[in-house]
Amino acid sequence: MNSTPQTEFWRGVRDTFPLIVGAIPFGIIFGTLSESGGLSLWGALAFSAIVFAGSAQFIALGMVSAGATWPVIVLTTFVVNLRHLLYSTTLLQQVRHLPQRWRIPLAFWLTDETFAVAVRHYAEPSPIIHKHWYYLGSALIMYFNWQLCTMIGIFFGRVMPGLEEWGLDFAMSATFIGIVVPYLKNRPMITAAIVASGLG
Amino acid sequence: MNEFLLVGGMFLVTFLVRYLPFGLAGSLQIPEPLERALRYVPVAVLMAIVSPAVLIPQGDSVQFSWQNPHLLGACAAFLAGWWKNNLLLTIVVGMAVFFISRFLIGGF
Question: How many CA atoms lie within 13 A of A174 on its CB side?
Answer without folding.
Answer: 35
